[in-house]
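In the laboratory, one determines a bound structure by crystallizing the protein with its ligand and collecting diffraction data. In a computational setting the workflow is compressed into a single prediction: the sequence and the ligand go in, and a structural description comes out. We illustrate the idea with S-adenosyl-L-homocysteine.
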Amino acid sequence: MKFEDEPKYAARRRMMVEQLRANPLAFPANVLEAISRVPRHLFCQKMYLSSAYDDVTLPIAAQQTISQPSTVARQMSLLDLHPGERVLEIGTGSGYQTACLEAFGVNVYTIERQKELFHITSNLLKGLESKAIYICGDGYNGMPQYAPFDKIIVTAGAFSFPPKLMAQLKVGGLMIIPIEDKSGTSHLYRVRRIDESNFNVDKLEECKFVPMLSGVN
Ligand code: SAH
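The predicted complex, in structure-token form:
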């Protein structure tokens, strides 16, 4: 991807990355390096530019949000990424997470269900010469035409493990997904595909995401 940066924002971004480096979750250096190369302000709405490098979620089109930098770092850390892997992202949103994954050197396939958001973000990614494959569709279906994936990252909160996504994971592959339980609390889960029919599931920390909804809107 090609980014036009501005010194003012580059300085703020360095501060954001220093803050992430001090996070007790101990994000790996290669994840922070990828994040340090993506100008988050390009993915924010104009009225929120002054907060682009704060560790917060911010509103984007279609009542959605751009993920918090520490959440992006956490999900990327848990994925145990290696350059060249095929990574499926559910919930393109602003395209920020997509750009961070691409900066890491993985091949990104990303799906967004909100047409309005997809229209804005696909134009942005195109303008930035992104090599990601982006489609408007229902992430519950995954992208069977590009499966299997080494890694799957879900950036919206599901209510159970989506069977079609599990089926599109390579043996040995990982999926990071937020799941909301009956009490309305969400946790991050890490799913590893052990073999054709077995998965190992780890329940991790509590988290907050916009809901993963079915169908295209
Ligand atoms: N990774 C994004 C996060 C956006 S918020 C970013 O960094 O900006 C999560 C996104 O998931 C929203 O845009 C929402 O519309 C989308 N989403 C929710 N359910 C989905 C589904 N079933 N398929 C695809 N996208 C979905």
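Strands lie at 58-59, 65-66, 86-90, 107-112, 133-136, 149-154, 169-180, 186-193, 199-207. Keep in mind that any predicted model is a hypothesis to be tested, not a measurement.
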